[in-house]
Specification:
This protein is α/β, with parallel strands linked by helices and 420 residues long. It has eleven helices and 20 strands.
Length: 420
């Protein structure tokens, strides 16, 4: 068997949680492969909205294995809070497995995140301040703490060594608070984590594939926030692209099958960094308000703009996307005209390539489409969608060379249309 992958093609917030939840019945295993509680995957069914930060989005389906892979970073406090919030909904946590090689976020990682972001001044990247960057930094520097360490007799000594490093860094950054303020609560949450089955996930996942079990790998954030291929330095700290599933789960490239790419019918971004199609007018405000574009993790208002084809083509290329999923075209209902950026003007030259320099002045070149007035949120067949929307979908498919398989017209599971 091969592992299918589902990931975002923009700057995150494309609707990955809902898509994974919808696709889960077709798979035996859902495995999250990178990121941390800076992600907020929203799912809605039975008139209840759930937001997951660390746990894979297949958790609500009985009998499905859900694996938190080695590429994920875990805050034990947030993890315990997330578990507690799910308990009233009858979730079976015996099917939740955690990689021993996943790294732990300490309270001092959050302090470092805030202190380093403040030190950047006007150059700040818009961090969620969840300690993600400093945790990945410790991982790369080879002195981080991992989930498997919490079962070792040397855990406390390892913790103290890392805390000592953090104390020195925080002192340099001018922090004068108590670095142990949240330590007791964190240690309680670590003890809570010990009740879960922690595994050598690379062995487990490959054994499942060898046994003919189907696996869907779930990404977080979006392609344009990838630490290597996003708008560096305004990116997240992990590899959000398809290749990240290999390193984040222990999969050989030959074990990758279908690659689902999720894209909003327009664009949004949280935090700093280039966003060529960003709208600073009433249209941008309307997109934000109609789309409920406020961060699921931070509550911050998202920057909004028209769809960006050059960025989408780039994402399709680096991920090897085989089929796409569109979300939120219902938000575009009511606009007289819809614009799509089809190329850029950079220093007077038209191009469809993303410039290396994040400070380059990029002017979007737009193609306009007629809008539609119908409320499509109750439509349950793709063929019943307005022709203007179907033409819009077809244009995007032709522009990037990959078909849409699913079009979502609302947050609920039932508002998911399969395109023939």
């Amino acid at each position: 068997m091969k592992t299918d992958i589902l990931l975002g093609l923009q700057w995150g917030d494309e609707g990955k949680g809902k898509a994974v939840d919808y696709l889960t019945p077709a798979y035996d295993v859902i495995a999250r492969f990178q990121g941390g509680p800076n992600a907020g995957h929203s799912l809605e069914f039975n008139q209840v909205k759930h937001v997951l930060h660390t746990i894979p989005s297949g958790i609500f389906h009985a009998g499905k294995l859900n694996i938190i892979g080695n590429g994920v970073v875990i805050d034990p406090i947030i993890f315990q809070s997330e578990i507690d919030g799910l308990k009233p909904h009858g979730v079976d946590f015996s099917k939740l497995l955690i990689s021993k090689k996943a790294h732990l976020i300490l309270p001092t990682h959050r302090l470092l995140d805030a202190a380093m972001e403040a030190a950047k001044g006007k150059s700040k990247i818009g961090s969620t301040l969840k300690g993600i960057g400093p945790t990945y930094t410790d991982k790369t520097a080879r002195h981080g703490l991992r989930v498997g360490d919490i079962f070792l007799p040397t855990f406390q000594a390892r913790y103290e060594r890392l805390l000592e490093k953090h104390a020195a860094s925080l002192k340099q950054l001018g922090y004068t608070g108590d670095i142990r303020a949240d330590e007791a609560r964190w240690m309680e949450a670590v003890a809570f984590m010990r009740q879960f089955r922690c595994i050598d996930s690379e062995y487990e996942i490959n054994a499942l594939l060898d046994a003919g079990r189907s696996v869907l790998a779930e990404g977080a954030q979006g392609t344009m926030l990838d630490v290597d291929f996003g708008s560096y330095p305004f990116v997240t700290s992990s590899n959000t692209i398809c290749a990240g599933a290999c390193t984040g789960l222990g999969l050989a490239p030959s074990r990758i099958g279908k690659v689902y790419g999720i894209v909003k019918a327009y664009c949004t971004r949280v935090g700093s960094g280039p966003f060529p199609t960003e709208l600073f007018d009433a249209t941008g405000d309307e997109l934000r308000n109609k789309g409920g574009e406020f961060g699921a993790t931070t509550g911050r208002p998202r920057r909004c703009g028209w769809l960006d084809i050059p960025a989408l083509k780039y994402s399709v290329m680096v991920n090897g996307v085989t089929s796409m999923i569109m979300t939120k075209p219902d938000v575009l209902s009511g606009f007289d005209t819809i614009k799509v950026c089809t190329s850029y003007m950079v220093n007077g030259v038209e191009t469809d390539r993303i410039p290396y320099d994040v400070e380059a002045v990029v002017e979007p070149v737009y193609t306009e489409f007629p809008g539609w007035k119908e409320d499509i949120s109750k439509v349950r067949s793709y063929d019943d969608l307005p022709k203007a929307l179907r033409d819009y979908v077809q244009f995007i498919e032709k522009a990037v060379g990959v078909p849409f398989e699913i079009v979502s017209v609302g947050p609920d599971r039932t508002a998911t249309l399969v395109k023939a």
